[in-house]
């Protein structure tokens, strides 16, 4: 199994030296493991050049299966740890910026009071990438909009508003509530969220065709652009808490709601540690912003 773990670590970190350090072995040992694996499979897996390490065409075809094998092995080890108790283990969560910033620090801090040795790995993405991570086992569970996903189980947690985000002194800032019709006339900066966008769905339901000027993957970049007067946007209210940007924030008419749920492959695939963390989340929803 170590040979598959070594290949996975090389691809993850990009070179043999970092992989060897992460696995606490020599670079020579890592090279021997890859050579042995290639000999057994009778396939060259890696291209080695001055520019770095990359998978061969054959390696690219085989690597998704190797990823699943590594994730399954990791799950077996974590379930074995559970049998011995929750003294150690890792919880892997697929998340997005607003959740990482405003929910997870509170929840992880509370969880570690009871389980101090449990470690966390947070992978930030959009609805599409988080769903894929759940399906492949890269994460134990993730935060998703239940309307945006398929092929996984979901459990609702907490819905939140989305707010119109305007530059300082913008004419629409004179309104207590901004209509989607007025917002759609402005140069709109859209947050890229995969195949599901709450603002675009809201515009479509009202028969509005917004003037999309930019599509950006990062909330903070959008805030910077709006502050600079490059357009308007709509972001989750949760993301807009405690920001240092000079922006005007207004609710919309009609309101735009972002549904939020926990997504997971199935309950049996969740480690005990992951289930305990989800239970903590549900118990503390009213305390979260």
Brief synopsis:
By secondary structure, the protein is α/β, with parallel strands linked by helices.
List the helices and strands and how they pair.
Layout: H1 2-13, H2 16-22, H3 27-41, E1 46-49, E2 52-55, H4 57-84, E3 89-95, H5 97-102, H6 104-114, E4 118-124, H7 127-136, E5 141-144, E6 153-156, E7 160-166, E8 178-179, H8 180-184, E9 187-191, H9 198-205, E10 211-216, H10 219-227, E11 232-236, E12 248-250, E13 252-253, E14 256-258, E15 261-264, H11 272-283
Parallel strand pairs: 3-4, 3-5, 8-13, 9-10, 9-11
Antiparallel strand pairs: 1-2, 5-15, 6-15, 7-11, 7-12, 7-14
Helix pairs in contact: 1-2, 1-3, 2-3
Pfam families: HTH_1, LysR_substrate
Family: Belongs to the LysR transcriptional regulatory family.
Organism: Succinivibrio dextrinosolvens DSM 3072
Name some characteristics of this structure:
DNA-binding; D-Maltodextrin-Binding Protein, domain 2; Arc Repressor Mutant, subunit A; 23% strand; LysR_HTH_N; 5-stranded mixed sheet; transcription regulation; DNA-binding transcription factor activity; alpha/beta; 6-stranded mixed sheet; single chain; 3 domains; DNA binding; 289 residues
């Amino acid at each position: 199994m170590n040979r598959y773990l070594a290949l996975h670590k090389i691809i993850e970190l990009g070179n043999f030296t970092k992989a060897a350090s992460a696995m606490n072995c020599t670079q020579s040992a890592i090279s021997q493991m890859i050579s042995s694996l290639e000999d057994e499979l009778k396939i060259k897996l890696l291209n080695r050049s001055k520019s770095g390490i990359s998978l061969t065409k054959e390696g690219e075809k085989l690597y998704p299966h190797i990823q699943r094998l590594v994730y399954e092995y990791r799950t077996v080890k974590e379930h074995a740890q559970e049998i011995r108790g929750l003294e150690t283990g890792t919880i892997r969560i697929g998340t997005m910026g607003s959740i990482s910033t405003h929910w997870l620090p509170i929840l992880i801090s509370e969880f570690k009071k009871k389980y101090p040795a449990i470690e966390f790995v947070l992978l930030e993405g959009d609805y599409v990438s988080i769903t894929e991570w759940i399906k492949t086992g890269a994460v134990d569970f993730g935060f998703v909009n239940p309307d945006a996903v398929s092929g996984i189980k979901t459990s609702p947690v907490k819905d939140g508003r989305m707010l119109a985000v305007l530059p300082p002194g913008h004419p629409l800032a004179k309104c207590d509530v901004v209509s989607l019709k007025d917002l759609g006339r402005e140069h709109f900066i859209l947050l890229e969220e995969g195949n599901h966008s709450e603002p675009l769905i809201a515009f479509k339901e009202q028969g509005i065709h917004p003037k999309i000027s930019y599509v950006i993957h990062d909330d903070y970049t959008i805030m910077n652009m709006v502050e600079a007067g490059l357009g308007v946007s709509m972001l989750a209210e949760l993301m807009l808490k405690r920001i240092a940007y000079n922006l005007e924030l207004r609710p919309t008419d009609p309101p735009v709601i972002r549904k939020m749920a926990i997504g997971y492959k199935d309950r049996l695939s969740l480690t005990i540690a992951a289930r305990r963390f989800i239970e903590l989340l549900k118990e503390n929803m009213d305390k979260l912003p």
